[in-house]
Specification:
Layout (H helix, E strand, L loop, with lengths): L3 H10 L6 H18 L13 H21 L2
Helix pairs in contact: 2-3
């Protein structure tokens, strides 16, 4: 069974439509991270997940994606 990293590497590098999938994945990450990072959105804690940790992750991912996209024009 492939790891999450192997899965992402495979879909980012071996898609039948070529590099278009990379824009697709980055846009999906950006959109979801924006939703999670939105200060108006409350994410409750569950037995498996800290809502605040999930929110901090969303903020971090959004920053990483924006920095990456801004560095590429």
């Amino acid at each position: 069974m492939e790891t999450n990293s192997e899965f992402i590497d495979r879909i980012m590098n071996f898609c039948p439509t070529g590099a278009l999938v990379q824009a697709f994945v980055l846009e999906a990450l950006r959109r979801y991270a924006e939703q999670v990072a939105d200060p108006a959105v409350q994410i409750p804690d569950t037995d498996l997940l800290s809502g605040q940790a999930w929110k901090r992750t969303g903020v971090w991912v959004l920053g990483q994606v924006e920095t990456h996209l801004n560095s590429h024009g």
